[in-house]
Amino acid sequence: MFEDLKSELRSNVTDLQRLDDLLSLVSDMQASQHDSKNLSEKLGLFISKSADIMTIIAPFVPALTGLAAGAG
Q1: pLDDT at 26
Q2: pTM across the whole model
């Protein structure tokens, strides 16, 4: 899921600095996937920074939210 999200971002975000920031947040979420508190924080930050591209990330939000809720 994380690699698919990164691929979508690479395909749709043209501002390279912004892309770099978003990819970094996705990597942070991936590294935190077994820590629900940390993952939830990273997910909130990611969603707030990508609100204007919600159509790109929307398909991933339910799975990410579920992962955050169920992480150890």
Answers
A1: 96
A2: 0.84
